[in-house]
Amino acid sequence: MPKIQIKDVSAHWGTPYRFINLADRNGPDMFANDIGTGLAATQKYIHHKYVYDADGSDLFEQITQDKNYYPAHAETEILTRFAPEIAAQLTDNTALIELGSGSAAKTRRLLEALLQKQGSTLFCPIDISGDFLQENVKRLSVDYPGLHILGIIADYYTGLAALTDEILQPKLLLWLGSDIGHTDRDKAAGLLREKMLPALKPGDKLLLGIDLKKDAETIHLAYGCPGDKEPLRYAFNCNALRRINRQLGGDFMPENFQRYCFYNENAGRVEIYLKSLCDQQVTIAALSQTFSFRASELIRIHFAHKYDQNDILQLGKAAGLKLEQQWFDSKGLYSLNLFAVAAD
Ligand SMILES: C[S@@+](CC[C@H](N)C(=O)[O-])C[C@H]1O[C@@H](n2cnc3c(N)ncnc32)[C@H](O)[C@@H]1O
């Protein structure tokens, strides 16, 4: 494995950006194995991360432009209004590490505030969508000459583990898009505690975007529920099937599946599935396996958990984090939460 040497990077780096590709660190068969496990389960599922390649990232960007997709607009509003205030909470010379940076469109507000406050800044975006990450890092480096960017093409945890102990500066870990909501609520604190916090030191901070519980109608509009008439979101969710066809020799016929989603108010989460429209079989050559789908059978694609204030406080407490400050958009739909890593 490549050893990352980025200590004192801001002092010695000659180029504005670099990339480290750790995408194969978990083994080239991980995609195939995960798909095989998910499709053999009683409740079939495909992990949401497999929606993302260059096409998936591009489709997600188009969704963020939809006027009804309030999470993106609310988070943009918060960062536009409060980025200087957020930067003011940070120790000088803070490095920004972002999980699932995507286009980093919203991150730009924070980068501008950090550059304004501390001059040159180290930015380490971690994303599995490699081509998309590289394209966006190059764009950022042109737009912000004061940035040193280390783009990490990797799963969150692999990328973070590779950075642990390598960055000597104080760190802000940024996780936008309410992606914490993709983890079941009872597992979210454990995920932060066990997989994310080991990369941080006492005094480092975590800035977490968390979508708030609200009326079902607003959520249904944002997520295009119930889903059967929503071509953009349908194409986004079906991208996982197309990737399986392309990369694993699958013979999924996406037109034999319909998107199905709803806000489960009791559980406080959006549930998104692909529903089989008929009895059918799908063969995946890389697995030498055939999977049967009954008419109306569901493949779970992703859940998006929504939080209330009590849930956020519980999350911080259970993860061993101190909630220092929160910011909300003007309609109170969405929150950005600054947590501090306490000394043991
Ligand atoms: C919902 S998009 C959010 C993008 C951006 N942060 C925003 O808020 O607009 C999720 C991003 O995380 C990346 N991603 C999803 N799962 C990942 C994983 N397990 N490891 C690394 N990146 C992941 C995707 O490629 C995508 O860019």
Describe the structure.
With 344 residues, the protein is an alpha/beta fold. The protein has two domains: 15-23 and 56-214 and 306-341, Vaccinia Virus protein VP39 (Rossmann fold); 220-305, no CATH class. Helices cover 38% and strands 25% of the residues. It contains eleven helices and 13 strands. It has helices at 9-12, 30-40, 54-65, 70-88, 107-118, 130-143, 156-163, 185-196, 216-223, 231-248, 309-319; strands at 17-21, 95-99, 121-127, 147-153, 171-175, 205-211, 257-264, 269-276, 280-284, 289-293, 298-305, 321-328, 334-341. The strands form three sheets. The chain has an eight-stranded mixed beta sheet with strand order 1-4-3-2-5-6-13-12, sandwiched between helices. A three-stranded antiparallel beta sheet has the order 7-8-11. The chain has a two-stranded antiparallel ribbon with strand order 9-10. Strand 12 (321-328) and strand 13 form a beta hairpin. Helix 3 runs antiparallel to helix 10 (231-248), helix 4 packs parallel to helix 5 and helix 8 packs parallel to helix 11. The two termini are 31 Å apart. The model is unreliable at 1-5 and 7-11 (pLDDT under 50). Bound molecules: S-adenosylmethionine. Residues 49, 52, 57, 60, 64, 100-102, 106, 126-129, 155-156, 176-177, 179 line the site of S-adenosylmethionine (SAM).
